[in-house]
Amino acid sequence: MTSKSFIAEAQNSVLVIVDVQQRLAAAMPKGVCDRVVEQIKTLVTAANTLSVPVVVTEQYPKGLGHTDDDVKACLIAETPIIEKTCFSSVKAEGFFSTIDESKRKQIILTGMETHICVLQTALDLQQQGYQVFVVEDAVSSRSKSNQYNALQRLRNAGVIITNVESVLFEWLGDSQHPEFKNLAHLIV
């Protein structure tokens, strides 16, 4: 039996951005939405630098619009963007195969809304044998109580609740990492 590390490892991680879309973002409390977008941009920048694959989902883009322009501007051209109507990204066509093909077992999960699509995606990924890290300062819900409830449920289910700064420094692992100086400045 292999033991799992409770530290996010860049060589074993996939960053997943769930439904950070124009109309959904507009429904979030203003300060919360801005913070989440900035935090996701930080993680995407670090992921691109450290060769961590990024996968994006869009919930019913005809109605909710496409991925936030600021987030999209940080993505590399090859980033898969998977459209879906199901709430769990795992059930969307192409999502699971994309994750599975990476041969990585840690999923760093960000996005909207914490109590619906993020929650269902996290629990389904965990059930499929992935180690799931939900980045608390890079997820949001329209309601604080729904956000809090979802994070409690996820924590109780064994999902690791973390934050952007922890993930970034866990991916680096050492201040001697060649990208340390480039990425440490992203933390404000």
Write the layout of secondary structure elements.
Layout lengths: L12 E6 L3 H5 L3 H20 L4 E6 L1 H4 L4 H6 L6 E4 L10 H7 L4 E7 L1 H14 L3 E10 L3 H13 L3 E3 L1 H9 L7 H5 L4
Helix pairs in contact: 6-7
Written overview of the protein:
By secondary structure, the protein is α/β, with parallel strands linked by helices. It has a single domain, classed as Isochorismatase-like (Rossmann fold, 3-Layer(aba) Sandwich), CATH 3.40.50.850. The protein contains 9 helices and 6 strands. The chain has a 6-stranded parallel sheet with strand order 3-2-1-4-5-6. Strand 4, helix 6 and strand 5 form a beta-alpha-beta unit. Helix 6 packs parallel to helix 7. The longest helix is centred in the first third of the chain and has 20 residues. The chain is globular and about 45 Å long. The N and C termini lie far apart (40 Å). The model has no long low-confidence stretch (mean pLDDT 96).
Question: What keyword list fits this structure?
Answer:
single chain, 6 strands, Rossmann fold, 9 helices, 188 residues, 6-stranded parallel sheet
Brief characterization of the structure:
The chain is an alpha/beta fold and about 190 residues long.
* CATH fold annotation: Rossmann fold
Q: What is the average of the pLDDT values? A: 96
List the total number of helices.
Answer: 9
Number of domains: 1
Which geometry do the CA atoms define? globular
Helical residues, percent: 40-55%
Helix- and strand-based class?
alpha/beta
C-alpha Rg (nearest Å): 15 Å
- The total of beta strands comes to 6
Main beta sheet strand tally, sense and closure: 6 strands, parallel
Distance between the termini: 40 Å
